[in-house]
Amino acid sequence: MAYGAKTYTLREESTESGTRYFISFKDGHGEHHELEVSEQLFFEFRQMERRNRNLQQWNQRHREFNEVWDETLYRRALRVPKSLDERMIEKERNEIFAKAVARLPKIQKRRFLLYYEYDLNFYQIGKMEHCTASAVQKSVSVAREKVKAEMKKYFQP
Predict the structure, then answer these.
(1) Is 108 in contact with 126 (CB distance < 8 Å)?
(2) pLDDT, tens digit, for every residue of 47-62?
(3) Per-residue pLDDT tens digits for 65-112
C-alpha cells in the first residue's frame, strides 16, 4: 500500500447483537467487495494505518522543504562561483601577467617572484642573493612598475 493512496476502507457497524467489522476494497477488475472480518484483524488494520500515518508525519517533519535548485545552492554557497565571463577575463589577465613577468630581466624576475609568489621579505631575499634589503626593494618596485605598465596596455578602458 502506498502511503498516500489507501486502497481499502474500514467500517464498523453496531447492531443489537454486537459490533460487526468490515473491510471494503476494489479488486483488480474494478469490482467492489466488502468482507466481514474478525475484530482482531480489523484492529490490526487500524494499527497499520496509524503506523503508516506516523511514518508519513515523521517523513514530513524531517524532509527539507525547499527545493535544492541551482539558485538555492548558489545562495547558500560560501564562495559564489564566478561567471563564465569573469573566468575568461581572469584567465586572460593571468596570461598577460605571466607574459609581463617573463619579459622582466632575470634578477628582477627572480626577486619579484620570491617576494610575491613565495612571500619572502626583502631581508630574506637580500640574504639569499648577498645584497641589501633596500636593493631588493628597489628591484622589486621597478619590476612591479614594469608589470603594471604592461598590464595597463591591455586593460585600459
Answers:
(1) no
(2) 999 999 998 888 877 7
(3) 656 677 777 777 777 788 899 999 899 999 999 999 999 999 999 999
Q: How far apart are CA 145 and CA 140, in angstroms?
A: 9
- Residue 10: closest CA among 18, 19, 2: 19
HEC per residue, the chain: CCCCCCCEEEEEEEECCEEEEEEEEECCCCCEEEEEECHHHHHHHHHHHHHHHHHHHHHHHHCCCCCCCHHHHHHHCCCCCCCHHHHHHHHHHHHHHHHHHHCCCHHHHHHHHHHHCCCCCHHHHHHHHCCCHHHHHHHHHHHHHHHHHHHHHHHCC
Is the model more confident about 139 or about 156?
139
The pTM is what? 0.50
Residue the block writes with cell 466481514: 36
Bridge partners, residue 26, by sequence = 32
